[in-house]
Predict the structure.
Amino acid sequence: MAIVHADTAIEGYRELELRLRDFLRAVPFEPPHQRVYSPVLASLLLDCCSLVESVLKSTMDNARYNGIPNIVQHRTRRYATTAPFLNINDLRATFRPDQFYAKRVWLLSRGDPSMPWHTWRFANGNPQWWTAYNRVKHARFDNADRAKLGIVVHAMKALFLTLVQSLEFRARLVERGVIRSRGLSVAQLIAIAADWEPLPTQNVVVAVSDLFGYKFLSQGSPAQATDTSDFL
């Protein structure tokens, strides 16, 4: 993937994260607030999930997925001008073997981990935030209350995980300081991050943004983060 595509995705993510961070300053992410909804959150949900879809569509071209059953069909549907079009079921069929569903993303300000793709552990499961996205997209006024704060935070966690899991984005994410590891140079980390997990290093490797954190599994650190200390 061209660097410009990676930069477009990363900058798009950061713009969305800034909007969410501004909202969280007024409405902290606490249990009583997770059912709050607003037009601001509806816009965030639509833009976030659209970017999730775009990143996954691009990532499908990686050779890692050449052996997925019906991959040619899934890839072709991205560019179809008539039905059938690419949908979430095509994406799940392609990426479910990557086990996104078992990976935790942390909301660092609250020390709060969750698995935003967890329902993909089922062969026919799709995330609640994706269902909310489709409801809002197709009937924004009638379904405004679907864009709740809890839903949007999970969608943003899913976007963050999608970005850092994409092998197409890894090198650029290292260069831009999102993926990092103490004691490793940028060149060393780019070479290591080109592999799938567990990464071939004894070091702890993390991805960190203003709001979120993800710990990669590595040969020397084969467990997920248990608190936020790995991200400090």
In short: The longest strand covers residues 212-215.
